[in-house]
Amino acid sequence: MTTIVKTVTANTLPDELRASIDPSNTVRVTVEDLGLPPRHRSADEVLKAINEYRSRNRPGTSLDEAVNRIRELRDEWD
């Protein structure tokens, strides 16, 4: 995990981070890499992740299999 600590003037911070701190004050900013994946992925990245998941896990149910299972359940009630 990477950590960066930097001392800067508060006026260099975005308003949402500075809040009520006087812009002329000196502040210490600490940034830590949490190692989390980005929240937003491109469509290609999402499709790649889906395909990787599918390759590691059992195959899903095909449409025909699902329809047959539903019909079997339905027929139990007839």
Describe this structure in words.
The protein has 78 residues and is of the alpha+beta class. The protein has one domain (3-76). It has three helices and two strands, in the order E-H-E-H-H. The chain has helices at residues 15-18, 43-56, 63-76; strands spanning 3-9, 26-32. A two-stranded antiparallel sheet has the order 1-2.
Strand order of the largest sheet: 1-2
Overall pLDDT score: 89
Report Rg.
26 Å
Count of extended strands: 2
Low-pLDDT runs of 5+ residues are none
How many domain regions?
1
Strand content: 15-25%
Helicity range: 40-55%
* Pattern of helices and strands: EHEHH
For the record, give the distance between the C-alpha atoms at the N and C termini, rounded to a whole number. 62 Å
Secondary structural class? alpha+beta
User: Biggest sheet: strands, sense, closure?
Assistant: 2 strands, antiparallel
Shape: elongated
What attributes characterize this protein structure?
single chain, 78 residues, alpha+beta, two-stranded antiparallel ribbon, 2 strands, 41% helix, elongated
Summarize the structure.
This protein is an alpha+beta fold and 78 residues long. It has three helices and two strands; from the N terminus they run βαβαα.
How would you summarize the topology of this molecule?
Layout: E1 3-9, H1 15-18, E2 26-32, H2 43-56, H3 63-76
